[in-house]
Amino acid sequence: MRQQVGEIRITERDLRVGRQVYPLFTIARVQVVPLFVPRGSQRRRVFWLVVLALVTAVLAWWGLLLVACVPALWALLLLPRTVRHAMTPRRYGMFVEAAGIRYATLSAGDPYELRRLAELVRRALREPPETDQVLPVSADVALV
């Protein structure tokens, strides 16, 4: 279940993301990575759909309509899953590594928003702010 984040707060000693608090001195690095979506298996499914469609067309052209039904049925079984994977939007995650443990902090569909936030956190790690910084976050960003 994802919960929307309104803001990220960076103080002199802490990074606050939602209710989570990470001390700045324990943060080793901040990364933005794509979350796993099996795109390779999607390409294989599309390849097999094309192969099955060609086999069905060749068998139907030869007049073997009863035999052509088998690859057509396989193609119909693969089609819904392929379409669902093609429509799934790609998500990205921002990870904070603190005290040797990697924490998934945020997820979003826009990698540029997460990279912007990660760069601001990295800047705060290099030079801790003297006053509290409140970073506005777009509506798509959610807690993991």
How would you describe the overall organization of this protein?
It contains three helices and nine strands; from the N terminus they run E-E-E-E-E-H-H-E-E-H-E-E. The longest helix is centred in the middle third of the chain and has 23 residues, at 39-61. The chain has two domains: 3-36 and 90-143, PH-domain like (Roll); 39-87. The termini are close together. By secondary structure, the chain is α+β, with helices and mostly antiparallel strands. Helix 1 (39-61) packs antiparallel against helix 2 (65-87). A hairpin with a 3-residue loop joins strand 2 (7-10) and strand 3. The protein has helices at residues 39-61, 65-87, 111-126, and strands at residues 3-4, 7-10, 14-17, 20-23, 27-34, 92-98, 101-108, 133-136, 142-143. The mean pLDDT is 79. It has a five-stranded antiparallel sheet, with helices on one face. A four-stranded antiparallel sheet has the order 4-3-2-8, with helices on one face.
Tag the structure with descriptive keywords:
144 residues; alpha+beta; four-stranded antiparallel β-sheet; transmembrane; membrane
